[in-house]
Request: fold
Amino acid sequence: MTRSSDRPISFEPSTISEDHPAYATHQAAIRSVQRVIDDRAPYQNVQVASTGIGQLLRLKPLILTGAGMSTDSGIPDYRGPKGSLRHSRPMTYQEFLHDDAARHRYWARSFVGWQHMYDATPHVGHDIISRWNASGVISGVVTQNVDGLHQRSQDSIDAQLGHNTEPGRVIALHGSMDEIECLVCGVKENREAFGIRLHEANAGVADDWHITEADINPDGDARIPQRWVDEFTMVQCLNCGSDKLKPTVVYFGEVVPRQRKESISALLESSGALIVVGSSLAVMSSYRILLEADRNRKPIGVINRGPTRGEERATFRWHTGVQQALEWLDEKIS
Ligand SMILES: [Zn+2]
Reply:
């Protein structure tokens, strides 16, 4: 069900025209961005929900996280109460490919917003999940977040424990912001090195470009004045000179690589349950994982402040903050 009052406001107008070959895919992507989740399963007593999810943790579950996981690290979500969709929508893949002006605007915004994301650090909830992963309490973690915080947390917990969690047990469903890829020649560049090039190209111009957290999207995109967009200088691919550059992130209108989907299916297969943490599962690529768990009769638990798509299929639904729930569960099982 969609409530019109909850619809995101002031979207950037679509710049892919109706006669463009990519128009239909672009429009479908926009509909996905705009989806408002209002699934309401019957109310479940908090005690029943929390205890039940504690029991799922004994079945070696797969953990599936979303933007609600990163809000405690200072990265805003799309659809939460302060969700960034309320002021701007993310780019579609089709715009990256076909709309030079939109791509320029994206990079100007990302230039300003990325530093904020780069500065974010994992919180205690990330570390709890990483410890569960290292000790085999869970089968793995699949995240929709592109901030890399689960992997960073896993690396530091592994270092503390002198353990080596297999790389396949932390999967970034939509990729990560760590790299930039050229859409023409396919060559990749490290985001940090790319960021240095951007800073050099904009030296002296962008010194006073600072924004607040409220103006940032989960993908590092940020709302900035038009003047900054106009003054921003984009850099080119080091290999072929094209400026068609994109973070190695799966954007709206783009598909998740097949091999990654298969890895996730295999991980789910080896799991006794699925626990969704901090996600409304608004996009099909993540909602599909819940449907697959349900089809394979794996019990499902949901920990999320707001409604989650398909939560009527979950045995346990705990409407609460992510970090406090994970802390409670960690105490319960240790
Ligand atoms: Zn190139």
Q: What stands out?
A: The chain has eleven helices and nine strands.
